[in-house]
Amino acid sequence: MFKKGLQFTHPTLAAIRRLQPKIGLCLLATAMLNLPGIASADTPEPNEEPRKQLAEFLNATDAKYAKPMQTVDLRETQDPLNLIYSVELEKARPSTLVVDEISEKQITRGNRFEPKKQPKPNDSTGTRNKIDAELLALLKDKGEAHRDRVMISFASQVRVPRFPEPAANEPRKGKANQQAMERTQALIRDLQEQRSKFYNPRYEMLKKYEIEVLQEFWLIDAMLVDMPLGALKALAKRPDTVFFGLNQTQYLPPAPDGNSNNDVQDGRAIIRSDPYFNLGLNGGYIGLLDTGVRDTHEVFSSPDNLDFLRDCIDGGANCRTGAITTTDIWPHGTSSAAIISGGSGVSAPHRGVTDITLDSFRVYPARGAGGSTRSASVNAFQQALAVLDRVIVGELQLGGDHWSDVSLAADAAFDAGAVVVSANGNVSNGPANIASPGNAHRGIGTGRTDLGSNVPSNDQIDGPTGDGRIKPDVQAPSVTETARGSGDSSYRTFSGTSGATPYAAGAAALLRNWLRRTSFSIDPGQVYAQLILSGQLTGPMDNNNGAGMLGLPVNGRASWGKTTVSKGDVIRIPVNVNGNNNVVVDAALWWPEGHEGPVLGNNAMIAGMFDNFHSDIDLRIIDPNGTLRGVSQNVNSVFERARATGTIQTGQWFIEIRGFDTWASNRPVYWATHVSRTR
């Protein structure tokens, strides 16, 4: 239920479209002239084909928005812009929703800000190595004549659309969800047809290098091939290739190291998830990419929240054809699944964070046969989307930067409407830098803080990412006792970033359902803003803490929404603080960006030009007296978090969003605030 705020007027569709983000035509046209296959850098005027491609791009990336408070079932549109949602919270239970608008009076444009100290850039897409370290080592060891299976990723020329939102209160076999899956299959067929126009001409080119294509993908522009390693360097020089990775990696799960015994309920208490669990937020589906699940374990009872058990290693491209193995032979995935969605029938202290249906996708071969498989991981992302999973959990720590295949899959899953939460990776058994897909632009990377400690573990891989962004995004508890997949009643301490990621994923799933129920908000970016808001770091964010340990808002007043910001804009969002016992005002921002046209869609012809096009957006908290009480102004980040403490007087506060420097006009940004109360 919601009611209109005192200043709320129901915007018309025309008003909604007027507020849509538009990309600068001149910026795109200028950039496209320098792209291979579009026009040479010295071409005086673009020919007709680039003009046509530019027009198609602008049309394809013109985001479609829902009407305010439009029901979410089967929806394929983004959340509306410039609305302010507000509720009072008591044990996470929201009061009647109040909806207001961000008016033009609250926006000033053309402002000039004090210069910032710019960090030294640590990467350029023009100099990065496209070939993963594992593959380079194999080339050096085996020589150019050696053949192996390699994943090749290309600059994408196809936009991934928003997939239909499932009906959360119906079973998968219900009429609405069957319609959602049928519509999803139609979208997949369309993506396959679009990508075939680029895949088919490539066969002749690859044949010249004695390369055999084994599989194509619809979610990203990538091919699994069997190739002589001697062709790598020549292919890497091509402007349309972005990443080469050995398909069967040696990157093991972000595995536990085994410390003390603490139950899952202790981890749940830290992230404050139980009040949300108690609201019955159990709709929708979560997809887990891991080693498989021992579904006969006693923790999966009362209720048994497991549904699909898919094998993306031996089960073919659809993860369910062939010699299926779903049991957890490592074991690893059983522990992840138990923390996310384990039942309470046998042991309430071991009950999971959520009561949400979970699908398992096995992406690791038999123990001793190597680490995660790249093609299986991308197939798992594809199949998770196909079966309506809208929270996808990556218990992976692959090598490769933000351009690698699995990171691209995570970004594309975001575009399709999925929240993606992954491990940051472990120093002890992970890659040298932030693991993929934890380094993805449009996903959450999870750090590890062990129970009993106030600081992140030294075994957590710290940021930044290859392009300088802060990672991890948040911290979650690790080293808790949960189910072990070696027996039906076996338990163990699950640590590493593996042990933390399920807590962050469970929190994300609960927040998504809470937003969906409260304001019909389903954009994954809004969930990310809520996760950043839930971070409890009191000082500046950094590449060790991110936004800090998760602690979901429970009591007080919450507000959230989505707007757009351009360079020089100042947007002041009013936040009414009333009542007694107010102790803290928190605010957070998160905005989507990345290669392939951040949030504008994965449009191939301009892929690559956006990687270093970063928006610097700042956040300030201002009290009723006009005093600046909190500020967050990182340079290399896609999120901000600020906190005001001390005396929290009643009256109208403001959350101020500043467009310090945006690479194009009207960049989308998600914001969230919470005024905490002691009760």
From TrEMBL:
Catalytic residues in the record: 290, 332, 498
Keyword line: Hydrolase, Protease, Serine protease, Signal
Domain of life according to the entry: Bacteria
GO terms assigned for molecular function: serine-type endopeptidase activity
Database matches in InterPro entries: Peptidase_S8/S53_dom (IPR000209), Peptidase_S8/S53_dom_sf (IPR036852), Peptidase_S8_Ser-AS (IPR023828), Peptidase_S8_subtilisin-like (IPR050131), Peptidase_S8_subtilisin-rel (IPR015500)
Span of the signal peptide: 1-41
Disordered: annotated segments: 108-129, 431-493
Keyword Protease: yes
Example of a GO biological process term: proteolysis
Coiled coil region boundaries: none
One Pfam family from the record: Peptidase_S8
Comp. bias regions, Polar residues: 451-460, 477-493
Compositionally biased tracts (Basic and acidic residues): 108-117
Segments forming domain Peptidase S8/S53: 283-513
Matches recorded under SUPFAM superfamilies: Subtilisin-like
Family to which the UniProt record says this protein belongs: Belongs to the peptidase S8 family.
Record's protein name: Subtilase family protein
